Automatic annotation (TrEMBL):
Signal peptide: none annotated. GO terms for cellular component: late endosome membrane; lysosomal membrane; monoatomic ion channel complex. This is Two pore channel protein 2. GO terms for molecular function: calcium channel activity; intracellularly phosphatidylinositol-3,5-bisphosphate-gated monatomic cation channel activity; ligand-gated sodium channel activity; voltage-gated channel activity. Keywords: Calcium, Calcium channel, Calcium transport, Endosome, Glycoprotein, Ion channel, Ion transport, Lysosome, Membrane, Repeat, Transmembrane, Transmembrane helix, Transport, Voltage-gated channel. It is a multi-pass membrane protein. The keyword Nucleotide-binding does not apply. SUPFAM superfamilies: Voltage-gated potassium channels. It comes from Sclerurus mexicanus (tawny-throated leaftosser). The gene is Tpcn2_0. GO terms for biological process: calcium-mediated signaling; endocytosis involved in viral entry into host cell. Belongs to the calcium channel alpha-1 subunit (TC 1.A.1.11) family. Two pore calcium channel subfamily.
Amino acid sequence: GSDADNDLYINQAVVFIEDAIQYRSINHRVDSKSLWLYRRYYSRTCQWILSLTITIILALAFIEEPSSLTVTSDVRYRPPAWNPPCGLTESVELLCFLVFVADVSVKSYLIGWKEFWKNKWLMAYILTLIVSLTDWIVSLSFFCTESLRIRRILRPFFLLQNSSMMKKTLKSINSTLPEMASVVLLLAVHLSLFTMFAMLLFARTKDNQQDKEWMVYFRNLPDSLTSLLVLLTTANNPDVMIPAYSKNRAYSIFFILFTVLGNLFLMNLLTAIIYNQFRGYLLKSVQSSLFRRRLGIRAAFEVLSSLKEIPANAQQPYVSAGALQQVLQKVEMDSRCKQAIMRSLKMCSCDQLSAAQFQKLFEELDKDAIKQHPPSPEYQSHFMQKLQFVFGHPYFGYLGNVVALANIISICVVLVMDADKQPSERDDFFLGTINCFFILYYLLEMLLKILAMGLRRYLSYPSNRFDGLLTVILLILEIATFAVYGFPHPGWRPEFMGLLSLWDMVRLVNMLIVFRFLRIIPNMKFMALVVTTLLDLVKNLRAFAGILVVVFYAFAITGIMLFKGAVVPLGNTSVGPTSSWNIGPTTLMTLLITFQGKMCFHGALLHLLSVNLICRWAKIYFVAWWLISSVIWVNLFVALLLENFIHKWDRRCHRASLSDIEYQRTVELMFRDVLEEPTEEELMEKLHQHPHLQLCR
């Protein structure tokens, strides 16, 4: 009947609009039952269950054998890790696999058989499940005693395939690899040439005292190559050149040339190429997302124009405003966007919407999320108006910043004076007194700002919420200190009472006071720009971070399988039968001593190679980790950081002050100014290719 057809068209339009909001493909089944299943699958509950399942199966590695999940990481002192009985983690795994089987089954059904064979991710999903279930059965047949579990390395795939943005980012990275490979090849040539030069320069002589450089770093080709590769990370600089430099200062020219060409030129050239290429591919990915959004909106228009209430002899297709309102009531979308679209529809004051008008209404989805702050209270009293003007003025905030700076300086002075004193010699009277004074000022400042701005307007600013929360915590800690130890007085010394000693509580208060000084950031425009750039990266580049988690997890699981039992406590020269590589017992101690406090993780891994503490084949693992994590991934992060910062820097003059309006941007909005709108012909051609939707025209 016509009513059933109309309901179907309405539901199709609802799903297409939701697809457009989430940048999803519309190439799925559109019959009534499939639409019901589709909306249930993408509901918050189902997606939350799927995300929880992925988190659980990834977290199993922390308790599975061989696990090192103990309080201390020192192999000399840590107790044996808890080893779950056979079948416990396997049962949890099976439940997770069942959820994934249901997930891939629903996805495969919804897109249809023809689309399934075009979707490489779904086929890889099924293959991963088959391999994982096979490995799970093998594990149970060996009563969980097998040393190799392939399914553990495959677990990150479940996280990867569940995010469309993560898959787009990975596709962009994959497209950038050819350009990266050219520079990496140039780095390899650079490394090889200097390795040959080094073996010629530091060849063995008859004098053993003069052969320290050859003996330690350039004894053979693998050692020479490894030494220079570590030097490329600057982890063994200047140690690698000291023996040769002691013999002849001119040898330093070799190492300077190698470092300048490798680090200053080639590595920075790699960053420039990655920035240029990856930005282009990411732009293409965002362009395809925009096309998906426009296609979803146009598909909704086409199905709504097929409603029975619309005359069949209409010259141009149109959608009634009532039908659109009916659709909007069912669509799950941000309330801000929905209200803005409804307002625009009322202002349009037309009963019929053309395709262009329909598309223009939903351009609200592409706009920045603007957060307007509530108005300040209006006082009738002239005296209250003056107070509101004084304490709501920016200069009052500047005064608070000056007071906070004075608080920081006073804490630094006390810490310098008491640095060499024993705990029994310290007198905390002065520090306790100034803390009490400043905390009372912070409380007064917060109350006066609330009086001037009103509570709702005060809490609408993130800086005020940060400031107010820390002020309340400081006040609670100060009251607790007075309740336990009394008011400050001369000779006020730390004593242990309750959960914390007095000194611990005073230190905690001082740390919070130092942390509170970050309130100055919104008042410094350039610093605020840098901080908002970092916050945008944290909020919007979850796909990038997700791929980073995938890489870390895969390498961590591989490392566990390869080097299990290789590190043993000092003095124990026997390595258990589970060891895959014969790493000496002094590995950790050598690592700690040779780096002399350098926080260079990738260099630390590569340094193990240069001291011949592990099997030479293990070099492949560590070099691969360095290439992927440091050379490629760090440069990708720098490229995205630069893109976000440059975008904000270019727009800073075209925006209102951040104190009045807050703009919340997404990755798609970063490139909005340079994206091209798809033409009507492109949209209609794509719609006619839809495998499950039959258009009337």
